[in-house]
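Two records follow; treat each independently.
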Amino acid sequence: MISVSHPHPPLVIRLRGEIDLATGPTFGSLIREAARGSTPGRPVIVDLSQVTFLDSGGLRALRAAHGALASRGVHCVLAEPRGVTAKVLELHSAARGIDVYPIIEAAQTALAHQDEPTCH
C-alpha cells in the first residue's frame, strides 16, 4: 500500500493500489504519518506510479494530505501518475494547486532548484 524512502533532501512516499472513496482516508493518513518527520524545507514527493485507480474520493484524500503538509510548511508534490490516475489529475479541477511531475527525477530537479538562491 505504501513505502517510504529517504533520499536527500526529498522524502519519497510510494503509493500502491487503488485510491478511492473507501481507501482514500487510509492513504491520506498514511501520507501524513510517513511525512511526520519532514520539516519545512524538506519536501515530500508522492510517487503515484503504482496507483492503478484514482477517483474523486481518492483525489480529495490526496488534497487533504497535501493541505495538512502545506500547513506545516512542507512542500508536497505528486509524481509519475499513469493511466487513469494521470487522466483524473489532468481533468479534475481539484488537482489544481498541486504540482504534478511526469517522473520522479523531474520532481527532484524542480524541488532542488527551489532551494537555490536567486540573483537579482
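The next record belongs to a different protein.
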Amino acid sequence: MITAVNNDTKYQPYAASGVYLKPVMPSHLDTLIIKYNGVLVGSGADTIYAHIGFGQNWTHIAELKMQKNMSSFELSFDMPIPADCINLCFRDSADNWDNNSGRNYTYTIELDAHYGGINV
C-alpha cells in the first residue's frame, strides 16, 4: 500500500489547504489515498469525516471516517464507479465543515478506453 503523498503543488492543487490525493493523476481503477491536515485539524478536531461524491453531480455520495495519524488524517478506498471527477469536503465531529469556501476539493479522474467519456 502506498502511504507517501507527493507535496508538489503542481500536482497537488489543494496542498496549501492541507488536502492531498494519491495517486496524483488517478484513474477509476486506482485505490485512492486522501490525506487531510486542513483548517479543521488546525482547529483541534479529534475526528474527521471525508464527504465524497463522484462525477459533476456528486453521485454515489459517501461519508467515511478518516484515520488519525501524527498530525493529519488519512483514508484509503477504491473507486466505486467510473467517474470523470471526485469531489471532496470534510467535517469534524462538531459538524464544522471545510468545503474549500464553497468550491469543494475536486480532482479529475482519468477514464480508460473501456469507459470512454462517461459522465456520472
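Discussion point: The radius of gyration is 14 Å. How would you locate this feature using only the C-alpha cell line?
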